[in-house]
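Re-run with default settings, no changes from the original entry. Doing this only to confirm the output is reproducible before filing.
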Amino acid sequence: MSAPITLTGRLVRDPELKFTTTGKAIARFTVVTSRRRKNGDQWEDVDTTFWPCTAWDQLAEQVCENFRQGSAVIISGSAYQNEWEKDGEKRSRIEVRVDAAGANLRWAKPADRMSSSTPAGDPWANGGTPDAPPF
C-alpha cells in the first residue's frame, strides 16, 4: 500500500536518467528534508531524512533537465515500502514514486532558476502576447 506524500527539500546529487529495455525513461534521485530549530544563537537541522525518489517517462526527463545537486524542490508522490533480497538477506526501505516535481523558489539558489534567455521568435517573450495589439 502507498501513502500520499509531499517533500520539501534539496537534491543530494544530480538526478540519474536511465531507460528501460522498452524505452521508458526513469530518473532516480534523493531528496533530503530536515526541520530547522534554534539552539541558543545557532540554527540547526534536525529530523534529517533522505528520501529515494523515482520519476518515470516525460517527468523523469524534465527532472534531469531542470534539477541539479542542491536544487530546492517540492516533490509530490506516493511513499511505498520497497522490499528485495541481497546476499540471502531481506531488505526494505521507504521510497517515493514521483507524480509531480517543481522548484521551491523560496529557498532556490540562482542556479535553480530557469535561464532568462528566450528562444528566437518566442511570441511570449518579454510579457508579450501573440497576435495581440500593444496596450
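The mean pLDDT is 86. The longest strand covers residues 25-39.
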